[in-house]
Structure formats: structure tokens, C-alpha cells
UniProtKB/TrEMBL annotation:
<dbReference type="Pfam" id="PF09360">
    <property type="entry name" value="zf-CDGSH"/>
</dbReference>
<keyword id="KW-0408">Iron</keyword>
<feature type="domain" description="Iron-binding zinc finger CDGSH type">
    <location>
        <begin position="48"/>
        <end position="79"/>
    </location>
</feature>
<keyword id="KW-0001">2Fe-2S</keyword>
<keyword id="KW-0479">Metal-binding</keyword>
<dbReference type="InterPro" id="IPR042216">
    <property type="entry name" value="MitoNEET_CISD"/>
</dbReference>
<dbReference type="InterPro" id="IPR052950">
    <property type="entry name" value="CISD"/>
</dbReference>
<keyword id="KW-0411">Iron-sulfur</keyword>
<feature type="domain" description="Iron-binding zinc finger CDGSH type">
    <location>
        <begin position="9"/>
        <end position="46"/>
    </location>
</feature>
<protein>
    <submittedName>
        <fullName>CDGSH iron-sulfur domain-containing protein</fullName>
    </submittedName>
</protein>
<dbReference type="InterPro" id="IPR018967">
    <property type="entry name" value="FeS-contain_CDGSH-typ"/>
</dbReference>
Amino acid sequence: MSNNIRGGDAPIPCQLEADKNYAWCSCGHSSDQPFCNGNHKKEGGTNPMIFKVEEAKEAYLCTCKQTSNPPYCDGSHKN
Ligand code: FES
């Protein structure tokens, strides 16, 4: 069992750089949303999702952790 929570109620627009590894917080416990700050270890949450993009772009990253398309917002925070 994982101890995940909502990390926020709306996505955060982020400027992503090409070919850089990002650690998206999947557990909701990070105070550095939408990215992992290591809190999943002490809170018993799920591990971060490591991802990168091929081209620099702005993306709306999920903070509610309900998205079906992590790390991106799919509108699930409105549910
Ligand atoms: S703090 Fe949430 S995945 Fe690391």
C-alpha cells in the first residue's frame, strides 16, 4: 500500500529543457510540486517518475496525481 495524497488542485506550467532528466512527484508529498523532493521516502509514497522530453517545451504537469497520462495534466483534478 502506498500513502499517496493530492499534491495540489491544478497543474503547474513548466518550461522543460530538451534531454534533461526530471523527477515528477507521483506521491503528492513533495513541497516542490510538481517535482520530487525526496519526501516519498519518509511518507511511504510511490517513487517519482523519471522523464525527459526530446524538444524544449512548456507543459502542464499534474499535481493532483490522478492523471492517466503522467506526468501531464489530463484534467482529472476537476473530478
Ligand atoms: S516526493 Fe513525491 S515522488 Fe518523491
